[in-house]
Design a protein that fits this description.
Helix content is 42%, strand content 17%. The chain has 443 residues and is an alpha/beta fold. The protein has two domains: 298 residues, UDP-N-acetylmuramoyl-L-alanine:D-glutamate ligase, CATH 3.40.1190; 128 residues, Protein-Tyrosine Phosphatase, Chain A (Alpha-Beta Complex), CATH 3.90.190.20. α1 runs parallel beside α5 and α4 packs across α12.
């Protein structure tokens, strides 16, 4: 099978990432369907250590950091993340290298007969694109005899297709309101869904959480006799220096003091790094041999694009995939703290199912000019729809039909001392990155 045909096949399945209406269909969240598929494939999820990561924000960055350290330590490590930004291959990686097109197509060809047979009966509903991708990742890690697999939850936790594994280490990153139609409209309800990945005997790492979320996680751990490490109290960290491309910091755990560096910006990434180090120390307690130098090297070399990433200077061009109110608030705080500029021009685009009004209100803190646009993603809100919502929030904004047009307009308006910020969606950030490759001066 050719790679293009493999992608076409996956795209033809139920894909809630492309269709907002599928997000709230209960039948799309039935783990029995996933369990059936894995049974037909020989249960490839078993037989290796697993780090399972849920949360509203930061779970992808944290997964990437943990993976980086494990690879530096010499472990044969599988990483499964979502969504992809430029290629489907990004979702499945082994030892820091994304799967080849040949292997990706081979996996689709291998699982397709089982998928088609199960969808023919559809006892528990039709298999989704994400479920098949999850099964492919687990089968790939099994085929390549991975020592350990690092799995990022796609959505929620309790009913997410990745929750067929028993996480030796379960990490729950920062929890805030998102996907409320499916996960619940309170922090407590959302925390209950995220905490659904915790299994009896798992070691649980929790980022600093709102009080309601922390209480839910503690109770879940108590009920399942799962040791809990709360990063906010068990570890402390302090930024020492940095520039637009890197930051160094000291971190103290109950085990030791670390002097570390990451090529990611923002205080939230220091929190994510603390969660990653706590997870690594937990893995050490299970018998994995990971040295101090592995942690230093692994964090220093990670690559996780489109997260508070500087693409150009004079003017500054910063992209960030923030896509909910909490993450936009974090972005605004980071921009004010880490960047000096005369005037801000904000390019914004978002998926239709997000709290756009809430994000608009947070972005007011930048006191900038706004250009509203739409990525090519099927869930993207139309620019005129965004304009109406921004107007209701008291914000005057221009519109541009395409991301490339928006970037061109922003670059034409900006002076060398200004900053252009593109945010609201990972998909928008990815398109800005592509468009900027030929447009931005790094001088």
């Amino acid at each position: 099978m050719k790679y293009a045909l493999a992608v076409q096949y996956l795209s033809g399945l139920n894909d809630y990432e492309k269709s907002p209406q599928l997000l709230t269909v209960p039948v799309n969240y039935d783990l029995r369907r996933m369990q059936e598929l894995l049974h037909e494939l020989g249960n490839p999820q078993k037989g290796r250590k697993t780090v399972h990561i849920a949360g509203t924000k930061g779970k992808g960055s944290t997964a990437c950091m943990i993976n980086g350290v494990l690879v530096a330590a010499g472990y044969n490590t599988g990483l499964f993340t979502s969504p992809h930004l430029f290629s489907w291959q990004e979702r499945i990686a082994l030892n820091g290298r994304k799967i080849t097109q040949k292997d990706f197509a081979g996996l689709v060809e291998a699982v397709m007969p089982c998928v088609d047979d199960l969808n023919q009966v559809a006892r528990y509903g039709l298999l989704t694109t994400f479920e098949v991708l999850t099964a492919m990742a687990l089968a790939y890690f099994n085929l390549k005899k991975a020592d350990i697999q690092v799995l990022e939850v796609g959505l929620g936790g309790r009913l997410d297709s990745t929750n067929v594994v028993h996480g030796d280490i379960c990490v729950i990153t920062s929890i805030s309101l998102d996907h409320t139609a499916l996960l619940g409209n309170t922090i407590k309800k959302i925390a209950g869904e995220k905490a659904g990945i915790i299994k009896r005997g798992s070691i649980v790492i929790s980022a600093p959480q709102p009080a309601e979320a922390a209480a839910v996680i503690r109770e879940k751990c108590r009920a399942l006799s799962a040791p809990l490490i709360e990063v906010g109290s068990a570890l402390s960290w302090r930024r020492t220096c940095g520039d637009h491309f890197n930051q160094t910091f000291t971190l103290r755990s109950q085990q030791r003091k670390y002097d570390l560096s990451i090529p990611l910006l923002g205080d939230h990434q220091l929190e994510n790094a603390a969660c990653a180090v706590a997870a690594i120390e937990a893995l050490q307690s299970t018998g994995l041999k990971i040295e101090y130098r592995d942690i230093v090297k692994g964090l220093d070399r990670i690559s996780w694009p489109l997260r508070l990433q500087v693409l150009g200077r004079g003017p500054l061009l910063v992209i960030d995939g923030a896509h909910n109110v909490y993450s936009i608030k974090t972005l605004v705080s980071a921009i004010k703290k880490y960047f000096k500029y005369r005037r801000a021009i904000i390019i914004f685009g978002s998926s239709r199912d997000k709290d756009i009004n809430g994000m608009a209100c947070e972005l007011q803190g930048l006191s900038g000019e706004f250009i509203l646009t739409s990525s090519h993603h099927s869930r993207a809100a139309a620019p005129e729809s965004l304009k109406r919502i921004f107007k209701q929030a008291g914000i005057k904004a221009d519109t541009a039909e395409t991301v490339q047009t928006a970037l061109g307009r922003a670059l034409a308006r900006a002076g060398r001392e200004d900053i252009i910020i593109a945010t609201g969606s990972l998909f928008l950030a990815a398109e800005i990155k592509t468009a900027s490759d030929k447009s931005v001066d790094f001088g």
